[in-house]
Amino acid sequence: MGKIHELTNVLADQIAAGEVIERPASIVKELVENSLDADSKRIDIIVENSGLDSIRVIDDGSGIASDDVKIAFKRHATSKIATRRDLFKVKTMGFRGEALPSIASVADVTLTTATPESTSGSLIHIHGGELVDLKPGPARQGTDVVVRELFFNTPARLKYLKSPQTELARITDIVNRLALANPQVAFSLTHNNKELFRTAGNDNLQQVVAAIYGIQVGKKMLPFAGEDNDFQIDGLVSLPELTRASRQYITITINHRYIRNFELTKAIINGYESKLMVGRYPIAVLNIQLDPVLVDVNVHPAKREVRLSKEPELSALISKVIRQRISTENLIPDVDANQFIPDEPDVDNLEHQLSEAAKQYTTPSTAFHPQSSATVVKNGGPADADASDSVVREPIVIHKKDELASSQMQAFDQRYQDEGIAYPFGSPDEQAPQKPVKAENIELDVQDKSDQSKKRFPNLQYIGQLQGTFLLAQASDGLYIVDQHAAQERINYERFRKEIGQVSDDQQAFLVPLVLNYSTVDTMTITQHLDVLEAVGLHLESFGPNSFILRSHPTWFAEGQEEATTNEMIEWLINDGKISVHDFRQRTAIMMSCKRAIKANHHLDDREAKALLQRLPKCENPFNCPHGRPVTVHFNDRDLEKMFKRIQDSHVPFAQDFDEHEF
């Protein structure tokens, strides 16, 4: 008797589920992508216990016809492709017909759906791949899928799940990515009856970023767009001052499908050139529009990895567009003066209670008025001194609400109104209606520092040197502190990059030829890339089985560092195994600029310091050293005045904000 037999449909679906359904986040991804394919405008995701108890996805899409509900749970049943030709121009999120049967084979699934034209809907219940019920259901347009008892019949899978917090983080991450890829769709995510995330679905990508990462991050994102004959790209990138320690904050989508691609991620980072510090990565959202023929999404069961045609051309376009966008910005970081002002202790317990009460009853509009932190005085100058200001008065102590109407309080209010202190949020006529402001409707203006002055980089007037390391300078908009090492490193880098890019036949011969010995594997790598070395002026000659000889070096090598520079450049080639001439020249320029720059604790005379400040604005990028460190920081006039308390935070007129509450 033969040993080969055909697997049952349920077992085959469970095997397929092992590739498609790895964890609760996988179910959320597959169900939401089905909703997107149904042209949904609103998608609500509701999970219990990090998805282990239940996952529910509700949409308002086109729904499933009654005749198709049962067949939708059969393996490889799909409405999205029909022929082999369709497989190479997929325009939808899903196409294999594996998601629903895979989910149903390892969980308890209830699906309710209806199409716009139907008078009644359908309800189907499947438990562990077995049909339990199929009957008419509500006629609400769209689809409602509830998944319970995940992995109840494959308990071994449960052992490999992480903690509930980790699984919830995975779910949140995938919903965030889908929302960034589809800003035209309103998403919401609720966990254990607590809403975690919501977007407006108004096709405003910047507001989606603000909903995920916070309003302050949203304000520091720069929009960009570009195209060529094959690709259209657009999205948002953060200012170089806003970075993270990993690449996880970079989202790449192709035709609104979230993907992972190392080369495209590297292209985004390359667009910043040397404006990022080593080990720091930007926040970015990149959407690529292309003909589906140019991308193969049928590579990975979860469709996270794809194959791209003309990937080098696409990478070059991404780097170019981002580089051009960032090059227009003033990238000098402003210093937050508030971090230098210590919090003053409360005078007494009563004052503390009044302050806390004022915070509690502050209107919602308070959070959205930047001018609330400063006192505005008549004519933009200090208030006129009054002899009465020097009189010491007894404090007015308020114990209950009725005392706010006393003659003392009225006199107090009248005194400050006469002095011309403006309302901290504008006059009563200018104040916005006091009603809750929805976060998704907040207008976010991109922080464009290029509008703050006519010039991209200010004209700095030298003041002096601090501790042999920093140069103090002033401009019309405040104080600048310049890192002298970073400044000269940037100047040297741009000079060396130009010189190395113009490789000539000018060579300096070694007094004694340099012999380089390597292992067999390293020798093979070097031999394959001799043309790259020659392009930067290193002409190696074979000298035995695993040795090379170098008789001369480029004239731009620093005197006394010829051998070290040669060895370091060849080590780059060995470690990377593959390196372009452009990258090779860039690394070499960075190394040379660092070694030739002035160091800390090196005192400069006035002439040298002024010359450095005069050469800095002529650089293509005067804001960062080649390693990404800032060259200068800026204290504006307002920051300095706040630090020295020439401007003080105004007191909130909290009395008018109380309702019927007693102290």
TrEMBL record:
InterPro entries referenced in this protein's UniProt entry, alphabetically: DNA_mismatch_repair_CS, DNA_mismatch_repair_MutL, DNA_mismatch_S5_2-like, HATPase_C_sf, MutL/Mlh/PMS, MutL/Mlh/Pms-like, MutL_C, MutL_C_dimsub
Keyword Phosphoprotein in record: no
Keyword Hydrolase: yes
Boundaries of every DNA mismatch repair protein S5 domain copy: 209-327
Entry GO MF terms: endonuclease activity
Xref: Gene3D superfamilies: 3.30.230.10, Histidine kinase-like ATPase, C-terminal domain (3.30.565.10), MutL, C-terminal domain, dimerisation subdomain (3.30.1540.20), MutL, C-terminal domain, regulatory subdomain (3.30.1370.100)
CDD domains in UniProt: HATPase_MutL-MLH-PMS-like, MutL_Trans
Domain MutL C-terminal dimerisation: 462-604
Keyword terms, alphabetized: DNA damage, DNA repair, Endonuclease, Hydrolase, Nuclease
SUPFAM superfamilies (alphabetical): ATPase domain of HSP90 chaperone/DNA topoisomerase II/histidine kinase, DNA mismatch repair protein MutL, Ribosomal protein S5 domain 2-like
PANTHER family: DNA MISMATCH REPAIR PROTEIN MLH, PMS, MUTL (PTHR10073), DNA MISMATCH REPAIR PROTEIN MLH1 (PTHR10073:SF12)
Function: This protein is involved in the repair of mismatches in DNA. It is required for dam-dependent methyl-directed DNA mismatch repair. May act as a 'molecular matchmaker', a protein that promotes the formation of a stable complex between two or more DNA-binding proteins in an ATP-dependent manner without itself being part of a final effector complex.
Family affiliation: Belongs to the DNA mismatch repair MutL/HexB family.
Protein name: DNA mismatch repair protein MutL
